[in-house]
Structure of DNA-directed RNA polymerase subunit Rpo11:
Amino acid sequence: MEITILSQGKDEMEILVKGETHTLMNIIKATLLEDDRVETAFYDMKRLSNSVEREPVLYIKTMPGEKPLEILKDVMATIVSMCDEFADAFTTALSKN
């Protein structure tokens, strides 16, 4: 995975997430949209340059005064926490069998 910030303003940003698919991008988008500080978030699979592959570009627009980079960091921490919680529950379920 390679991440490139394509554009960044006061309340919006666009990032390229090279090497990822809908699987990760849908989780990021959905979690962003659950945050009250986010006005909108979506991604688009774009063909960049001469590449035959499509790469996801994530767009985030925040409420006025909110910083998209800080919100994205918070959202990533939330996703990691959700994965940890699932791993713990899965481990517990396996130990009962």
Notes: Residues 31 and 78 are 8 Å apart (CA to CA). The longest strand covers residues 38-47.
